[in-house]
Amino acid sequence: MQGAKNTLPIVYLATFFYAFHYAITLYIESSFLGKFLSTESVGLMFTVAAFASILLIFKLPPILRKVGNYRVLITAVILEIAALFSLATVSSWEFVIFFFVLHQILLNTIYFSLTIFLESLSKDESTGGTRGVFFTIVNVAVLAGPIIAGNILRDGSYKSAFMVAGLLAVPILFLVGRNLRNFTD
User: What gap in Å lies between CA 10 and CA 154, rounded to an integer?
Assistant: First the structure.
């Protein structure tokens, strides 16, 4: 890809917003689901979501070949924002389950897509350093997320945490949409 040196920081910044949005709800999701489901069912929902994510990852290569990584990422982020805003507003357990599983699947899809950009923009001789920066960014954002979530949840409302997480995903759209549109798969 042309301009990889200038584009790699964009992927890093998009990754930061991805990881930060992910971390905001990371430690509250089981408690949130516990408002709608039994403890055993909460574990089952995480299992179903993980299984669905694995299935999608196996189905993703033909989708990527057909529509491209750029479109997959943009679509996944739009759906993720919608899923998070829905989790903040719906009160029916059926909708909560649907949007929660969708949210979990999209988290994995977005991460997978970001790593495709990272791999494509990495030079073979500096792959280790590039991935090291990538994982450091993820870890810093994941470290900061629960601190912010703790302050958001002081009122006991999960709605605010899901809304903030959804808002933190919006910059990914702008960063990717503006800077990675010409990505060649």
Answer: 33
